[in-house]
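Translate structure to sequence.
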């Protein structure tokens, strides 16, 4: 799986106009090119590991179908 971490993306909330900063983890499987996206507000090792574990569960469930 290829992993990319898009950091510090500014996002405007439509209802309040508030600007927030988000990070997006993108995972792409090599052969099938299946893509997975996960959003986070923090950039810590704990968050990264949690997102990777969640992504593995999602990919495992989708591949089993």
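Result:
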């Amino acid at each position: 799986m290829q992993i990319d971490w898009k950091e510090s993306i500014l996002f405007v909330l439509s209802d309040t106009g508030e600007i927030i900063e988000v990070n997006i983890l993108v995972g792409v499987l090599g052969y099938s090119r299946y893509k997975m996206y996960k959003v986070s507000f923090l950039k810590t090792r704990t968050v990264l590991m949690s997102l990777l574990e969640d992504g593995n569960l999602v990919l495992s469930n989708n591949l089993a179908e």
